[in-house]
Amino acid sequence: MRSFEQILNDISKIPYHDTFGTKKEIKYLPNILDDNETVLSFTSGFFDGNTWLIVLTHRRLIFLDKGMIYGLKQREIPLDHINSVGHKIGLMLGSIAIQDGASAIRIDNIQKQTIVPFIDALNKSIDNFKMGRSTCKEYSSMSSADEIKKYKQLLDEGIITNEEFNIKKKQILGL
Description:
InterPro entries: SHOCT, YokE-like_PH. It comes from Blautia parvula. By secondary structure, this protein is an alpha+beta fold. The protein folds into two domains: about 130 residues, Roll (PH-domain like); about 35 residues. The chain has five helices and seven strands; from the N terminus they run H-H-E-E-E-E-E-E-E-H-H-H. The strands form two sheets. The chain has a four-stranded antiparallel β-sheet. Strands 5-6-7 form a three-stranded antiparallel β-sheet, covered by helices on one side. Helix 1 packs across helix 4 and helix 4 runs antiparallel to helix 5. About 5% of the residues have low confidence.
């Protein structure tokens, strides 16, 4: 099981993402991800009557909805089961449609600036998975300043605390 800090490190390197209404789901990710699984992209959207976190790893696509008070809904699709991916972009929001064999999943109300980067990462991951390559190190060339900016964004979004931000900043700067 990956630690919350490791997951925060992964998501801090993702340039375009949306966490609207999914803080509980992000905090639950360590319970779902395997030790060697890296978050490559994520966004939030409306699916099955609720706001869900959609997470792409190098092995699978995870849909996660942690209830208001209790409960958990989770669905996942291994990358080799995805047959097609489509998207639609409107004025402010868009949608993504994913076909996996006989079923189709449509996620609506996705922030439009996250759709194309998410689709690109998903298609690249599917290609790499089918070719037997891993994309875990895809975002490893980020500068220290960029990494700190990403953690600052997580702090501003309320995903991490000020203390967690300061600890991570010191780690990045080697202090």
